């Protein structure tokens, strides 16, 4: 007899009947269900993360060393991709296929049954094909492009600390899958963190005893009866904006020529407006600890030549020095030169720096002056001033200038000050403008070295600099400073009426947002936020040097190109709106089509089995009974 | 009346109606046939509670400009609505009285839970802005509602089965349990599948064995096992009521899995890394 698998499947052999049986289905479902539950009770390796040592210690702390090895050998830490779990799924698929064949023979019109069970086969096929999937993440900085996808793999869970160390040493080779080089690149034009224009004002109430906090959207909720369970009714009468007086630079056309630039910068998610004058004592502006900016305006380009050609700037503006005042009309500064006796110009006095300590402290036992640390926590210098044969020594403290600074020599009205070096901030922006050629540039220095020089254009960002984003807003010829009232968009004032339920006693209070207020046994917090509306990456696809496609990638709106789909994944959360980069996750899964087909079939099949068939069944029963 | 006021009023009314309905149903069952009107009043109270919940949901939807499906409060309210809606439909087909009591009790419990939640209407987070999200949540919420009433029916079945084993009531509850599971199962499935489609559009991965995904699958497996076990039980050599008694507990276990998946998941230690634990 020729062996035919089809005939075997349709025979009544006991084994075949078992493989096609519903009993097996129930057993397999129970086994798979149980396995799934175990996978949720034992944290899976991918979610633990960290170095192999980290992973090992995590599991050993939970299960002890012996049970850990047992679990690891049984693949319980990567349960869903383990061989035995896959075997269970394969067995279930086979169970369905065999059962399907046998039922086909008898009742081929069972469309619903066929669809539902065949769909699962399709799903499994989709998963198998999808094993070929490729993907990874791509981090792109604004103005740059990337064509590489990086993916972290899943290193094996070690059974012992030694094994963990071995694994760690052989990483990253043992760990990640190799990066994928695409035949095209994605260029990030801009990352936008868009917030809602309308603020979300909420009022949160809590009883002073503690307990649950209830918040309400103030746009919708004007009355809160029995707030937080306390016998007080709160009514929101109105909210008024908070206004503050700010300084602003304006173009004063009738004023004197005072060139300036208006800038805007975003630091730590907050937007600030500022200005820099081309001359005068405001010529150097320190914006934050990281950034400072300068504006040079010249009538001729020639005067700016030297600056334009600079590839490095001094990283210190001033050095440590001693400032002498009181003796002459102007102050004199003397550099800090240890042990050198320097004359004070225009007088018969000399000054010698005897000692410098960065962190001045007096040892109370020995009464000696020591430096408590090498850091400049309390810098001080010991100086000796000499006039002829009289001299006096004194300590000068830069952080406490008035101490010991006066009348070091009796009869001499001299004041001494120890001034510390003023170091440049790491990011230094220099805006240059030449009247004759009309050229305007921005130089950006990082730690004293030139990083870039671009044309300065209003509205354009002149520095993406780590956490600070600086934009040139406009040029001013006759700048003047004005003060004006401005609405503080981040705060508001609410007018509340609070009424005691029992006594009827009513109070009206003004509640500012942003601080916890206590009213009797009620605690209130009014808050304003601008919720995030969307994360948007403005991206261009570049292939062979040409821009092929322009797209905005947002959450729930990915970019598809050449089989790959790119999803908005992450950004620089700390920098918030000033985020300079975006993280896209990419995937190419050839099995997705089969999966979706399986989904459609399963849905249709279930609808037929559980909705259509019973309805048809009832209709035929009615017809049947009518026909009797 | 402002939106917020309407919201609070409808919530309070729903609460009050459901308590009234529960008490009336309890009284009606205790007094037996002597009080037909009381059961009618219980139905009316539950019905009024359902209307109040509908108003609450519609209100929050219109006010927020998006379906109210983004926080724990919204989820619990929608679940409560779904249970009472499924109950209403089941009642039209099968008249039962015990169910009224169980539904009333459950509604009260869930509304008490909801009252502890933050109910502020907020705009949707970017990850939730998707039509697939709406379909996903609708499908499995309605599925949950139907399967919850199936749970009640299974409980009633066991009560009757243990007191009057072969009665007509036992059979009716057995049939009702099956019909409800059979109706809810496709909805649950569509819920899981649309969730997978949404996940694929958002993160590029249709299934990541995330803890909430896995537990929804476990719930699905329990009900799939129920259906297949029922098929198998036809070959058993015991009388029908005993057959049903051997498998209706799965409808109860399934409900346990639903509650776990919906509300208790966050207490698992491995839940910290889940994307789903917004609630």
Describe this structure in words.
The complex is a heterodimer of chains A (about 625) and B (about 280). By secondary structure, chain A is of the alpha+beta class. In chain A, about 25% of the residues lie in helices and about 45% in strands. The radius of gyration of chain A is 38 Å and the shape is elongated. Chain B is mostly helical and about 280 residues long. Helix content of chain B is about 75%, strand content about 0%. In chain B, helix 4 (about 100-115) packs across helix 5 (about 130-165) and helix 5 (about 130-165) packs antiparallel against helix 6. Chain B is flat. Classes of the chains: A alpha+beta (about 625), B mainly alpha (about 280). Chains A and B meet through helix 3, strand 5, strand 32, strand 35 and strand 36 of A and helix 1, helix 6 and helix 7 of B.
Keywords:
heterodimer, A: 628 residues, 5-stranded mixed sheet, 4-stranded antiparallel sheet, 43% strand, elongated, B: 279 residues, mainly alpha
Terminal-residue CA separation of chain B: 30 Å
SSE succession of chain B: HHHHHHHHH
Main beta sheet of chain B, described?
none
The general outline of chain B is: flat
Q: What radius of gyration of chain A results from the CA coordinates?
A: 38 Å
**Strands of chain A, count:** 36
Structural class of chain B: mainly alpha
Q: Extract low-pLDDT stretches of chain A.
A: none
Average pLDDT metric of chain A: 83
Number of helices of chain A: 10
In percent terms, what proportion of residues of chain A is strand?
Answer: 35-45%
Helix content of chain B: over 70%
Biggest pleated sheet of chain A: 5 strands, mixed
Side-by-side strand order of the widest sheet of chain A: 10-11-23-24-25
- Indicate the structural class of chain A: alpha+beta
| Strand-residue proportion of chain B | under 5%
